[in-house]
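[SOLVED] Need 3D model of a two-part complex

Original post:
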Amino acid sequence: DIQMTQSPSSLSASVGDRVTITCRASEGINNRLAWFQQKPGKAPKSLIYAASTLQSGVPSRFSGSGSGTDFTLTISSLQPEDFATYYCQHYQIYPLSFGGGTKVEIQ
Amino acid sequence: EVQLVESGGGLVQTGGSLRLSCAASGFTFSDHNMDWVRQAPGKGLEWLGRIRERANSYTTEYAASVRGRFTISRDDSQSSLYLQMNGLKTEDTAVYYCVVVAGSGYYLDPWGQGALVTVSS
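Solution:
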């Protein structure tokens, strides 16, 4: 099974900061990686698929990059509504799996 | 617009059974693979399984943690997805989400609101 490792598990940042979250797959997954945002008590929201393609309606301050085993999610200028937990997920082979999550908190 | 509404959650004792439903609308349900994903309280997301569309014979895939206990099914005439859960354990306590899979394998938005299942000993 492919294991997804996110880092850091949490971070504190201020509005306007540039934030980068890393996701590493235990084996190559080409670009079959998605990123999700989840706020407390809410369902996850899809942000990015195919490692770098923004879902419709997602602000352009979000971007994704990477291929193979190493991927990043970048928020170019953190906004108040971006404080949430972020998850990566591979969809290369079964079983699909998610990273452990990165909680982005207000500094 | 995609709309997914889960139902059927509740409190059940260990060893018991429960069937979740997911009512879909706003897209051609029969054309899509569908997944179930869960989230235990305060924990991360866990993929549970997939059912493919009719063109792929409604075949299924499961996570090891639920294989043999959970069964995914669908009724395209009702645009509905189901999760039959047997032999429930306390560790199955979670919010359960149904999700639409796009042709390339990623998830469409939005997800449903989720159904809470609580397994008590």
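Edit: The radius of gyration of chain A is 13 Å.
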